[in-house]
Amino acid sequence: MLTVITYDWVPEMPRGFVRDIRPRWAAEEAGLAYRVETVPLRQKTDAHRAMQPFEQVPILKDGDLTIFESGAILWHLGESSEALMPRDPGGRAETMEWLIAGLNSVEPMTMGWILAKVFDRSAEQTEVAARRMRPRLAHLSAVLESRAFLAAGRLTVADLLMADILRTVEAQGGLGGLPVLSEYVARLTARPAFRKAHADQMAHWAAADAREAAA
Amino acid sequence: MLTVITYDWVPEMPRGFVRDIRPRWAAEEAGLAYRVETVPLRQKTDAHRAMQPFEQVPILKDGDLTIFESGAILWHLGESSEALMPRDPGGRAETMEWLIAGLNSVEPMTMGWILAKVFDRSAEQTEVAARRMRPRLAHLSAVLESRAFLAAGRLTVADLLMADILRTVEAQGGLGGLPVLSEYVARLTARPAFRKAHADQMAHWAAADAREAAA
Q1: Phi, psi of A184 (to 5 degrees)
Q2: A49 with A130, same domain?
Q3: In chain A, what residues touch B100 (CB-CB under 8 Å)?
Q4: Tens place of pLDDT for every residue, chain B, 215 residues?
Q5: pLDDT tens digits, residue range B6-56?
Q6: Chain A contacts of B97, Cβ < 8 Å?
Q7: What is this structure's pTM?
Q8: Are residues B154 and B207 both part of a single domain?
Q9: By the CB < 8 Å criterion, does B125 face chain A?
């Protein structure tokens, strides 16, 4: 059985957006069972760093393999299940390029905007970051105008990643004027596998609160 | 034969750092021949967008496949040549996680710092970005203290990517106090394959200047 490792607890704000949602969602789409283990958020440990040198989550254990980086985990699960990625070389290459487009051409810009807006609360820097984010979102919108999924004409791990990136922007009001992207997010996150993964993550934090209250 | 697509011309500043250096370097390490084709930088075309929806470079053509995103191209070349990636599942998973760590856990922070310092020329924002970049670089330094390569105990495409990310930071004075990372960059970029790739990129821009001067 797979093991998804996430934090033992997080504050209210990131709940529902912690990146363990990515392997959870992929596992649900593929019908793969997994258990959840935790690492402490507040006192990072050597054991955590040994699995994830940047002290982040998620981490996936699959047999002898321990894999960090949500993008690498999605690729691994894609290789494990045809529900998440086609098997032909062309379809795999398309899935890979769109997975990496999400990680390196879209998310750095969306994260820059969210850091400026939500964490730094700087109107000036939010505008600077928005000027960098908007062209990338516009290009992505142009692609999704003519197709339902990013790669290979079907659902792949690239869509799970991109929809997760974009829903964070949507939650902060950053998809205004880009209805194609709003509809893409709405359609992907309406999938039963996402709803289950999201509910399970929220239940994990609720259980953490209950455990702390009892301690 | 492979085809690497890059811009027809770029200004002085990015020369030597345009991301076609990544497939060029990988091809040299693997002894793979390639030709170079170009897309216009100044007047982006539909033909370019059809291959690269974000209007960036590089793009790789390999037989029937056309692949964008330098990270996806590196992975594809890694799958094509054992000189760039081991064949066992554990070694492949390690290469993948470190490739993606470079693309999603390191480069977004280094790029944020470079944008603030070089493009926005804002001392305040450079300091904000440095506070986000430094912990990632420190974690990476801790990893490279005890090993020569990131993944699988040998050179992989993950090293080519990470060294290329870090040399951009080094060029702007951002690796001060992190001698492990400076030494890693120096060691990787001293490789004949990198020197060749870098010289070939610089020669490409020189030829572009000569062509424009003659026009």
Answers
A1: -60, -50
A2: no
A3: 69, 71-72, 75, 100, 103
A4: 999 999 999 999 999 999 999 999 999 999 999 999 999 999 999 999 999 999 999 999 999 999 999 999 999 999 999 999 999 999 999 999 999 999 999 999 999 999 999 999 999 999 999 999 999 999 999 999 999 999 999 999 999 999 999 999 999 999 999 999 999 999 999 999 999 999 999 999 999 999 999 98
A5: 999 999 999 999 999 999 999 999 999 999 999 999 999 999 999 999 999
A6: 67-69, 72
A7: 0.97
A8: no
A9: yes
Number of CB atoms found within 10 A of residue B178's CB: 20
Q: How far is CA A162 from CA A6, A122, B7, B102, B161, in A?
A: 20, 26, 27, 18, 22
Q: What residues have CB less than 8 Å from B15, skipping those under 6 apart?
A: B201, B202, B205
Q: Using the 8-state DSSP alphabet, how is residue A79 labeled?
A: H
CATH number of the domain within which B116 lies:
1.20.1050.10
Q: Which helix (H) or strand (E) holds A126?
A: helix A123-145
A 76-95 residues with CB < 8 A to B: 76, 89-90, 93
Q: How far is CA A82 from each of CA A75, A79, A154, A155, A187, rounded to the nearest angstrom?
A: 11, 7, 11, 10, 21
Instruction: Read off the pLDDT of residues A167-196 as tens digits, 9 standing for 90 and up.
Output: 999 999 999 999 999 999 999 999 999 999
Q: Are residues B75 and B94 in the same domain?
A: no
Give residue A155's pLDDT. Answer: 98
Q: Which domain holds residue A151?
A: 89-191
| CATH code for the domain of B8 | 3.40.30.10
- What pLDDT does residue A215 have? 86
- In 3D, which of B142, B118, B117, B141 has the Cα closest to residue B128? B117
Q: Are residues A100 and A184 in the same domain?
A: yes
> Is residue B56 domain-shared with residue B120, that is, in the same domain?
no
Do residues A11 and A62 make contact, with C-beta atoms less than 8 angstroms apart? no
Per the CB < 8 Å rule, is B53 touching A143?
yes
CA A194 – CA A189 distance, rounded (Å): 6
Contact B65 A90 (CB under 8 A): yes
Which B positions 46-65 lie with beta carbon below 8 A of chain A? 49, 53-56, 64-65
For residues B151 and B187, membership in a common domain is answered with: yes
Closest Cα partner for A106 from A162, A31, A25, A153? Answer: A162
Number of domains observed in the structure of chain B: 2
Q: How many residues does chain B have?
A: 215
